[in-house]
Amino acid sequence: MMNAENKPLPPGQFEFPSFDRFGLGLFAKRFPANPDSIAFTIGGDVGQSIKVGKEFAALPRVEQMSDFHCVTTWSVLSVRWSGVRFSDFYQQVVVPLAKPQGGANFVVFRGEDGFSVSMPLDDLMASDVLLADSLDGHGLGIEHGAPLRLVAPAHYGYKNAKHISAIEFWCNPRNYRFPFPYPKLMDHPRGRVALEERARFLPLWLIRPLYRALMPLARYKMRKSLETYRAKGGRGA
Ligand SMILES: Nc1nc2c(c(=O)[nH]1)N[C@H]1C(S)=C(S)[C@@H](COP(=O)(O)O)O[C@H]1N2
Ligand SMILES: [Mo]
Questions:
Q1: Are 46 and 99 in contact (CB under 8 A)?
Q2: Whose CA is nearest to atom 24 of ligand 1?
Q3: pLDDT, tens digit, for every residue of 59-85?
Q4: Which end is more exposed in the chain, N or C (fewer Cβ atoms within 10 Å of the end residue's Cβ)?
């Protein structure tokens, strides 16, 4: 199986034919109240907590094709995103307006559905990491994280937070914990796909088949919740 750059898939991944809504079951039924407009806060160890909305539209835009790899072993190849490079956002908005403290390099993303995840700032500064508001030339859509999501192709899907409502910059990682009741073991501090950083401590011979077995149920839950949301006329659906 080859991807866009004609390279083999990363270790332990298989190609899935469609790009579907996916996520942790706990958040399946929760949708953002306002998927049409970008509005999130910047907080943590910063000089000034701020709200970001219209400022986002002024940032330079990029489009990219990248592969998407979920930790449960499915991959979708050549997904076309557009949005703003995280590094541009950091340099042009976070640094001048929020003034993060020196050493505030532990970044937490919170989604409006209650999901949250952390990433090291260094990993986010890669040029292929986007705050994306568009997929395949259209607005993101509720299933893929409207109004704004992270796209970090070198990192497993769960590091790619959807429905972003807050981005926090902390000095001390203890200001964050992976969403309860999911075990911390599931949350690798880096989550790099090429190095198969799927989880903390758990061996790959265990985690690969376990996640692969759990995947269909998660997929089903996410699809059913989306169908219910749409049937009720949910916003952005
Ligand atoms: N807010 C939020 N972001 C999330 C999740 C979630 O449940 N809630 N699931 C993560 C996981 S495990 C994956 S694989 C991707 C799935 O992205 P998709 O729904 O666009 O396929 O979103 C990630 N970001
Ligand atoms: Mo995932």
A1: yes
A2: 161
A3: 999 999 999 999 999 999 999 999 999
A4: N
